[in-house]
User: What shape does this take?
Amino acid sequence: LIGRAASLLIGVLLLGACVNDATRLRVSENSFLSSVDSDDPGLKRLAAFFDEAVFGRDDALKSSKVRSFDRVLSRWVVPIRVTVGGDVTDNAERKIRDRLEHFAGLTGTELIWQGRNAKRYNFKITLIDSSQIRAEASVDTICFARPTDSYGKIISAVVFLPSNDAEDFEDCIDHELMHAFGFDGHSHRLNSALSYMHKQSRLTAWDEIMLRTLYDSRLSAGLPRNDAWPIVWELLSQGVARQRTAGALPELGEEFWAVFPDEIPFSLGYDSLPDLPRLAMAHHIHDGRTVETRAVFATRTNSERAEIFHAEADDPVERWDSYRPRWRRVSKGGNLTDKPNELDDLPYRGLYDTIWNGSRHCLVFVREAEIPGRFFSGYYCRTGAISGSMRRKFLDALSTSPPEPAES
Ligand SMILES: [Zn+2]
Assistant: This one.
């Protein structure tokens, strides 16, 4: 799971060890999604979500160029024998059991509780300190799941959850259990525990429809996407209809669409940050128009980090105001001033403030882009101070031209 967007030290999802050669199949060229026809935006987004999370692979955060849709449906076909280990408290164990039982109920899988530190199991949940998780996975990771499957039949899974941060633990459980139950990828099409762009730590009704669908008896482990799709579409339609009748469907939420790092419409040529972002997302509205692109640039160790939005606005003040809530979230409550500094030492209109957030110095900014009506906004944080010349250099390094395509 990518850490709750609250923290500057953002965590990531991790999809096991699944880095294949890239099949650069863009979602927009995806035949199923373009052939899917429904007047129901909820159903369309749910179908796109299912497709991306079950059959697609997004690994934008690991900057690999992986996005393929050649996988088969994977799910458990044997009873799940669970054990827990590590720094597990009674409370944490209760919570884990409770969530696992909920998942088992939705999917119809048999759950056998083997107790703590059991010798015999095919599903192990280990609680360890986040620093160990980062060492095991990556600097961005706060928790992860690694299911192992054989031709789509999941035969085992390990899940690591943080033992030292109750909030992260809560945010992680359902997300990682979804991975461990067969949703190997991520999607950000709607409100879901599997999306790190939406603030959902618990399964939403959308997630529950997807879990029931994945484990429906009309589908089977190992089914290729082409064969599964017509059935999936029917099951999702029925699930949505049922939940809608029951009045149980929550908000769809915003729609985000992961894009390849070299598909963002701007570039940042700043020395100490990599040229390509670690995470790139487009924000869509119903007609498919991109209204905003955001990208996170960070060094491998996260010693420096920038999040940049490229979006429409009438003027810098409007953009500054619309960036406020986002900044409050990423800085865990940090407020932006009503009277930011004018950017008067660069040939662009803009506003900025430099803020110490308790662990880092951050430049928060709005800068007009070269295209009229478009603005950059975001933050750049580092452990050391940010001088005036550094600020100018950083803001000057933003440009409305896409980055060089990655070599394939
Ligand atoms: Zn994840």
